[in-house]
Amino acid sequence: MKPTLMVLAAGMGSRYGGNKQLDQVGPSGETIIDYSIYDAKRAGFGKVVFVIRRDIEEQFRETFVKRLSKVIEIDYVFQELGNLPEGYSLPEGRQKPWGTSHAILVTEPKIHEPFGVINADDYYGVDSFKVLYDFLTRDKSDTNYCIVGYRLGNTLSDHGHVNRGICSVSNEGFLKNMVETRGIEKRPDGIFAPDTQGNINKYTGDEVVSMNLFGFKPSVYKYLNLEFRSFLKEKIGDSKSELDIPTSLDKFVKKGEITIQILRSNSHWFGVTYREDKPFVVESIRKMVDQGIYPEKLF
Question: Which of 121, 142, 101, 110 has its CA nearest to residue 4?
Fold first, then answer.
């Protein structure tokens, strides 16, 4: 059975100022998602499952489903606030999504095979999908997952702060722990971010970071369900709280219940965190088309 690619496309795009998942960056009107699906398909993935918001369904179907269903199997699910485990109900006034762990959990009825996870607004590169596909088809351990890691300095925006999962890696290439670090900013004198105590830390730029390019087996749903329940028990009343993937998995890594290999890709990452990032993305894709990495028109 071919692995599936899950695309996280339910983000609000608040910093970008619009629905960046649907923004056109390619010479024939392609989105970043189109390039990811093109790379995933030629790497060997057999299906794509999108996680979207219900309010963009019509536009999503028009933009993606009509075109891509002729190329690869397409399915989608909604990440809705009321989709909670038995025994929990939606708190009054809650508007913020529950986070990326919840986004993965809502796909459980749709995915029963090894799968990769990507962000809709990130370009990961041809080699990254090959590395991910090889892991998902060759690794036989049900509780060994992977992250395709990038160098922190190659994942920053010139136009504002970003959030990154900074990885500590063992000598054997496995994740020791991952810290979701928010507010990372590139300045003329270096790379800085506040920690949870409000102290400002400086980074070299060589740190390995997760860009939400994961490889999972179906067993991951069990661990995410357990951690999401713990999260709700403690923080369901906090209207701004959310549970990200690194936080969910870190506990189980430390307890030795799962392992996560850190794989490295030769591809260069870029994304559209801010609207000012778009010209660089358009230019980068244009160069790759000119180099023959992609055709002028993908689909």
Answer: 110
Sorted by where each starts, the structural domains of the chain and their CATH numbers stand as 4-148+210-290 (3.90.550.10)
User: Nearest Cα to 10, choosing from 84, 79, 63?
Assistant: 79
Residues 199 and 228: their CA atoms lie apart, in Å, by 28
Q: Which of 174, 150, 175, 176 is nearest to 164 (CA)?
A: 150
Distances (CA, A) of 107 to 12, 275, 282: 19, 29, 31
Q: Give the burial string for 231-263 (b: 16+ CB within 10 Å, else e).
A: bbeeebeeeeeebbbbbbbbebbeeeebbbbbb
Task: Indicate the pTM of the whole model.
Answer: 0.89
* Spatial distance between the Cα atoms of 157 and 272, rounded to a whole number of angstroms: 8
Question: How many angstroms separate the first and last alpha carbons of the chain?
Answer: 24
Give the tens place of pLDDT for each residue, 28-58. Answer: 999 999 999 999 999 999 999 999 999 888 8
Q: Is 252's pLDDT higher than 50?
A: yes
